[in-house]
Amino acid sequence: MSIQFDEENGDKVLVIHVSGTLVKADYEQFMPEVERLIRQHGKLRLLFDMTDFHGWESSAAWEDFKFGIEHFTDIERLAMVGEKQWQHGMAILCKPFTKATVRYFDHADAAEARKWLIEE
């Protein structure tokens, strides 16, 4: 599994590329970085790029759920970019667990996702 971070637009936009299968240890890397940016900038806008993403191990799914609860109001916009139908469904399922405005974009529309994130 791989997580790669890119900070954009004055660090208010965080691009997270995930691939393979997320495991609990991935959240140990991910969580402190996101929490640092929240402390530094307030609400964030996230682009969650799921290209070649296969899902979570059960312990990682629990960490993901806890992250959503802990940061319910810290994410302003969430653009989920994927290539599979289940990823689009995941974007719909996550909406009740965040105050963020959530939109799904097909991988071919990743540039549009970035544009949406930086709009006022």
From TrEMBL:
Superkingdom as given in the UniProt entry: Bacteria
InterPro entries registered for this protein in UniProt: SpoIIAA-like, SpoIIAA-like_sf, STAS_dom_sf
UniProt signal peptide: none
Protein name per UniProt: STAS/SEC14 domain-containing protein
Organism classification: Bacteria, Pseudomonadati, Pseudomonadota, Gammaproteobacteria, Methylococcales
